[in-house]
Amino acid sequence: MKAAVLHDGGKLTIEDIPVPKIGPGQALVKVAACGVCHTDLHYIEHGVPTFKKPPIVLGHEASGVVERIGEGVTNLTPGQRVLIPAVLTCGKCSACRLGRENICSDMTMLGNHFDGAYAEYVAVPAKDVLDLPELIPLEEASIIADALSTPYHAVKNRARVRAGDTVVVFGCGGVGINAVQLATASGASVIAVDISEKKLEWAREFGAVHTINASKIERVDKEVKKLTGGGADIAMEVIGNPKTIETAFDCVRVGGRLCVVGYTHEKISIVAGKIMFKEVEIIGSLGCRPVDYIPLIRMVEQGKIDIKRLVTHRFDLDGLMDAFDVMKEGMSLRSIVIP
Ligand code: APR
Q: What distance in angstroms lies between residue 236's CA and the mean position of ligand 1's atoms?
């Protein structure tokens, strides 16, 4: 089968490799599509190591059709349309037992700990795979596995967005645009912040009532305070930049919340007294829990979340590097690869 294989030194090549063998409890899924995520670019261009030493097939945002099931699998049948969660949890550690599987201490990820889905076939533990209702288009469904599930957890469980809230979202890329869409679907009034006019145009299409181009305005926090009459109930940072995390904090009203979804290994600087006096909650959000997938899939099925419009570009496996170029140029919301 054809697959995109990462080698030492970040070299990605499209190769012919054997179809994965499945063992007991596993399923072989014929990949319908795999979303192209920024995380993959970290492995290829920024020297971030994968847990499994290369060579490794990348790709962690996949949908497909069950081809074969291994011994003992009772929850899937060949021919079934499925979604493969990007991250698989152990179910045994204390976080899992507390119902917080997304921070599992022994989590594994497709295309990171084991071979992923930029390939014609992928082998996965059957217990983690989710059924996809007929109404949901199979290829576009791939992006539910990460680009939608991550902001779903952030908006619903961590930022706890409710109807009537004002929410400012920093960063309207693949993940942030869905924070805009999901917060809007929850009944919030959303202010979207980005430095790209194209992204802000998309943010308006996906429900933002106000947009702020941070490259054209010096004090985004002042503008947010003006628009909200004193500060947003909730700020979400979906970039991973210490400066925007700090600005997002400054946008929050007294008693509000800052939810950090973007990843950075750098430090942030916030006056501690402001956290105390303003009783601001600072909350992290990582991925999503297995239990979140069913309500999220239902929202997509009911048309509350539009996945068709989110997929702006399609490539075959040979076009994967072009997909990364489009992403770097900021021209895509989400690209999918159809092996
Ligand atoms: N101010 C506002 N917006 C910015 C700024 C800035 N200073 N810098 C970048 N942006 C915007 C970009 O224009 C882009 O639209 O942030 C967005 C980032 O989007 P993507 O690059 O598509 O990244 P995405 O896949 O959405 O991930 C964002 O979320 O889950 C985490 O690890 C992930 O840290 C990453 C973050």
A: 11
